[in-house]
Amino acid sequence: MRPSYLLATSKSCLILHRLVAKTSLTSPPWPEVKLPDPVEEAKYHAEVVQKVNKMIAMGQYGRLFAVVHFASKQWKITGEDLIMMDNVLEAECGDRIRMEKVLLVGADDFTLIGRPLLGKDLVRVEATVIEKTESWPKINMRFRKRHNYQRKKSKMQRIQSFLPCCSVVRSGRGRYRDTRATPGGGHSFTISPGPLMAQHLFPRSLPPVCPLYLEHSDLIFPWSSTLC
Length: 228
Known about the structure:
By secondary structure, the chain is α+β, with helices and mostly antiparallel strands. Helices cover 17% and strands 32% of the residues.
């Protein structure tokens, strides 16, 4: 008797499961997400890579910008921008520093996105310390009425200014190569370094600003609709 009872119970549960109404609890109200076809996605990626290679070969990538993490903040910078920070830095005026934490580098029609950072051999963003000044005095006054208590403290912070450069000086050939299908391979995006520029924008005592160099990338994302 017991095996037949278990069999009947399992059949009744199966019948009840088929008669469950379709509600928001049994199925979500939004439509089912359809993943893109891998073949079409690979074809689209190949077209984007081909267009990017063509722009690099012709030098039509325009002016670059970068998003860097510096002094506990994220900065969106481009060529000849100024960064003003309150943190203490050991570099002196005229020294050139390198910003190694680069999150993103973009152009007119494509963007290199880090995961989360771009490699040091991928992009090079340098800045020149042009000024180190002190801020206005910040006075902290403590006073207690009818207690002959008065304390006064003044504090001055150092303000440091930097001039990053994200301009690319291209001399030679650059190429983006997709090697996602190769085990252990990575993307490559090469722009050979060129001469230093913008020497006439700063005093002669300061070194010229170093341009931005791109070596290879982990991801290319089309920025404009021309690549779609």
